[in-house]
């Protein structure tokens, strides 16, 4: 029988809970970057479309999903706060400007489509269309800047590493967005969307090289931090996934392309986690074992997460199943 005494005595089932929560934090971040990432990418692609019908198609494709996808950002923040409260406090106090910027961009991205649909006036829709694009581009850029600064332990919000990583994440969302729009909208969108996706994945690989080069100069351990076998394996896997993505997109295998984009997203987040570990707050030197909460709340949280996360995942399975398949001409945002 589980008792308070047993829960306070040691880790649940003798599991390495500190390391598991570290991995879970980054898995949640990767899930948000992928699921909301293709929404962001669709918003960026929206800027390249002149035809009103094509723009409405983009809005219809992401309409059922974008607000639900943002749940994963809340779960990420909640998990970081619950498991590593000192890290949460330090990160959010050092980078509060970035946090406000991310929230502002997310609000703009959510508000703009609603306002866009309220009036069919050219000037009105041009303004809110641009706002939608701005929110869709700024949100991943600022989130990437936050992740880059977190990795190198910079106390400043705007750095070279932040700009490079932010640009990398933004282009990665376009990669995901092109595959998602191909899957949901199909022939309702011009073929240029696929070409944008192929071009974006090439730019993404170039930015990955730029990111690794910047980290080699910025990280205290230098290039040695990037030459470990896990990092090299993740980079090689990313190259293979990028090639698979481009081939799949050209052949119209949009689901395969979207799966490849998911692999690229989780791979990028995994590189950050591997390079950072065992530290979780490089700015202060805190390592995972030092930053984790005490045994009793850690065990209770682990039980709660084991029960609740499958429920959240089930909700998303139901959501995506209910709105599966390509959108029809009758659907609107």
Could you walk me through the main structural features you see in this protein, from its secondary elements to its overall organization?
With 333 residues, this protein is mainly α. The chain has a single domain (15-321), classed as Formate dehydrogenase/DMSO reductase fold, CATH 1.20.1630.10. Helix content is 77%, strand content 2%. Strands 1-2 form a two-stranded antiparallel sheet. A hairpin with a 4-residue loop joins strand 1 and strand 2 (286-287). Helix 9 packs antiparallel against helix 10 (192-218) and helix 10 (192-218) runs antiparallel to helix 11.
Structural class: mainly alpha
Strand content: under 5%
Give the radius of gyration: 20 Å
| Share of helix, binned | over 70%
Shape: globular
Order of helices and strands: HHHHHHHHHHHHEEHH
> Would you identify the CATH H-level superfamily?
Formate dehydrogenase/DMSO reductase domain
CATH fold description: Formate dehydrogenase/DMSO reductase fold
Task: Give the tally of β-strands.
Answer: 2
Q: How do the strands line up in the largest sheet?
A: 1-2
The tally of structural domains comes to: 1
| Average predicted local confidence, pLDDT | 87
Name the CATH architecture: Up-down Bundle
Largest sheet: 2 strands, antiparallel
Low-confidence stretches: none
Termini gap: 51 Å
CATH class: Mainly Alpha
DSSP summary: helix tally: 14
Topology:
Blueprint: H1 4-9, H2 17-46, H3 52-62, H4 66-69, H5 71-83, H6 85-94, H7 96-116, H8 122-152, H9 160-185, H10 192-218, H11 229-250, H12 254-276, E1 279-281, E2 286-287, H13 288-291, H14 295-322
Antiparallel strand pairs: 1-2
Helix pairs in contact: 2-3, 2-5, 2-8, 2-9, 2-12, 5-6, 7-8, 8-9, 8-12, 9-10, 9-12, 10-11, 11-12
